[in-house]
Structure prediction request, 147 residues.
Amino acid sequence: MKDRLIEFGKNKNGRIYDKNSYDWGKLEDISNRGMLMGELSHDGEVGTDVLLSNVSHVIKDIEVYDDGIWAEIKILDTESGNILQELKDMDINFDISSRGKGEIVNGKIVMESITAFDFIPRPETSLQKRSKKLNRILERLKNGNVK
Prediction:
């Protein structure tokens, strides 16, 4: 599936990225070598390292457009990948969040490094709705019924 990894301009969480905020050629190189991966969700304390045991997807074919960075995303046949696919099959919507190091300069994000793009639940997805669907998925996992 093709999706936008980074939205140029002010994004949903109020951060401002532009074409000059990072050397996107570095990211293309990492992606072309099959080394750009992501996990299912992250919190503020996850750090920049990708844990291979948590990888759910691989990022390929990065392209830079006027509206942002787009790429092909392949969901993997791993435990986290299977959970991600099951959630997507149940119409749970996700955002994609970059993980790396950077700073804010003149109100804009300037990235030093990007190590991953993680799928995170969209804030507008109600907790109750997510909770019911997640409980069904966990039940399937316990019974071994996940793709």
The longest strand covers residues 108-121. Residues 2-77+93-122 form one domain. DSSP finds three helices and eight strands in the chain. The mean pLDDT is 83.
